[in-house]
User: Which sequence fits this backbone?
């Protein structure tokens, strides 16, 4: 049985070809060849194209009547690519999708400015749809993404970060684009408000479960996945969900350990193992997995009102798959 | 006699109060207090608010009939502020408007992400105007700005940079926003195409003369201006117009000097003085000033078709003032 993601890719193959063509066409720049070079490095590395597929899937389920779902899928991928370029500068990352990052191959300057260019290109694409409603949704999503990223920055290494704050960060930096990707697919197809809301709720919940599963993977939820190294979040001292949960159970000695390794960043050999031992002691990874399952269920429930179809079935399987990656 | 810029500020005082209020309101962020902190640091430092005043002036000259010129003026200032935040990271600048830069006071991460936020906020503001034409103009301008910045980055320290390439960079990084600022003021007021084109041509030419004058100031066109230090562009090895002109006149010995100081960046005491001597020898600063005057004339000629008014008179005086700063 194929992964739901591959099933989607197969069902949406023709549309995705059109999206990829449009992306290639619009990432060009007559005046500044550096732009397509940097963009191609990231775009050609693949990535799962999950977000544009969500837009196409939503549009298809709502009987899309315009050609603009292609524009919107490309828009969503451009916004995503722009945020990746900026994120890698902000996080000083050296690897993305198994390749050296653009900031490493070129420089931070190129990543910042090419990100700005792609972001502008994404707005040009959505303007072409002629739908002010769509523009409103995507402009709001962009602001929410940036807000989530800034919030994440300001709570970095802050051991007092609550699950509530974590959720605000995740809904911004990850779920906002999933939500908008699904929502605009419905809106551009003239779907009823009830359906549009259902698609938005699905995207939001899928995005949250996706990020929680990602956090979990980083503490070894599964050993081999996505080229991720266990412990990256620990080494980068990120306030991810397993850590927040571990802190909520910590006694005084444990708190001292977290203060030293995360707050102060004085990490020694064996610290990651000890962190994992503390997480196991308090059953933190299971609790995190339960949260991911909760959001996955929420996602599935949201689209239960849509008519049964191949695509709906695949979207129903997707949240479970996202969580199972990390189990 | 007041400077034209101060005259504009006085004529447009009520509208500018509304613009400043809207900027304050929209730079807020409930979730991430870092955002208004960083933005306020830049916004409160003043700056001349030239770009939003151009939007208001254009709208007023075209008998503005909607309240949305205020939104558009704020949009333009947000785009400008976002690009300043990113520019200061790209250039590793430590000072802006006589104060330490945000990247110095906070960090590069905050400047990148708050810039992204303001850029998204600017799109939200323009969506509220409900004008797809305006959205199209500003989305194009944003892409052109980023393209100009990337082009500037890729020709940095390249002694073969031509005046043609210089003009492409300047029309992108500086003139595109001046042009769009003027143009949307006309469009939102329902002006005739001929008038809209005239406003766009004015903004473009004003922007180019503004940047050339800025380049000139940096090589001491005038001694005290804007808190700029003579020689910053030389030390930062920027391919500004006086340098490009000096290179076009350089003999072999002079070329070696420019290769050492700009291409390789091996600068010693006395090099700036020698650079200024070479520029004087070839009359380069006068040539640069002539170019600035050429663009200033072009700007004035463009709006000659507009009906005579206080505002038109002030806009007519502005290009001359911009050039005279550097004389």
Assistant:
């Amino acid at each position: 049985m194929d992964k739901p993601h591959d099933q989607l890719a197969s069902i949406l193959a023709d549309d995705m070809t059109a999206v990829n063509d449009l992306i290639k066409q619009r990432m060009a720049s007559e005046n500044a060849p550096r732009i397509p070079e940097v963009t191609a490095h990231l775009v050609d590395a693949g990535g799962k194209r999950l977000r544009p597929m969500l837009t196409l899937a939503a549009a298809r389920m709502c009987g899309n009547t315009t050609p603009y779902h292609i524009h919107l899928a490309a828009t969503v991928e451009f916004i995503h690519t722009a945020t990746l370029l900026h994120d890698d500068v902000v996080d000083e990352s050296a690897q993305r999708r198994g390749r050296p990052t653009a900031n490493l191959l070129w420089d931070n300057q190129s990543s910042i400015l090419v990100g700005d260019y792609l972001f502008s290109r994404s707005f040009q694409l959505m303007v072409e749809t002629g739908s002010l409603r769509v523009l409103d949704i995507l402009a709001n999503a962009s602001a929410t993404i940036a807000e989530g990223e800034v919030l994440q920055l300001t709570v970095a290494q802050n051991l007092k970060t609550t699950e509530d704050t974590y959720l605000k960060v995740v809904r911004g930096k990850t779920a906002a684009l999933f939500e908008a990707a699904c929502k605009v697919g419905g809106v551009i197809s003239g779907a009823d408000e009830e359906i549009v809301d259902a698609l938005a709720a699905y995207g939001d919940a899928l995005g949250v479960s996706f990020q929680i599963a990602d956090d979990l993977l980083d503490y070894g939820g599964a050993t081999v996945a996505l080229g991720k190294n266990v412990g990256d979040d620990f080494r980068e001292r990120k306030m991810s969900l397993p850590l927040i949960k571990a802190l909520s159970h910590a006694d005084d000695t444990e708190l001292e350990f977290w203060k030293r390794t995360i707050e102060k960043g004085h990490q020694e050999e064996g610290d990651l193992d000890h962190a994992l031992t503390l997480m196991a002691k308090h059953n933190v990874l299971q609790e995190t997995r339960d949260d991911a399952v909760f959001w996955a269920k929420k996602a599935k429930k949201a689209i239960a009102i849509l008519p049964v179809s191949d695509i709906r079935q695949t979207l129903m399987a997707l949240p479970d798959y996202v969580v199972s990656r990390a189990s």
Notes: Chain B has one domain: 4-320. The interface with chain A takes residues 29, 31-35, 83, 86, 89-90, 108-110, 112-114, 116-117, 119-121, 123-124, 127, 130, 132, 135-136, 139-140, 142-143, 145-151, 153-154, 168, 172 of chain B (CB under 8 Å). The domain at 4-320 of chain B is CATH 1.10.600.10 (Farnesyl Diphosphate Synthase). The two ends of chain B are 18 Å apart (CA to CA).
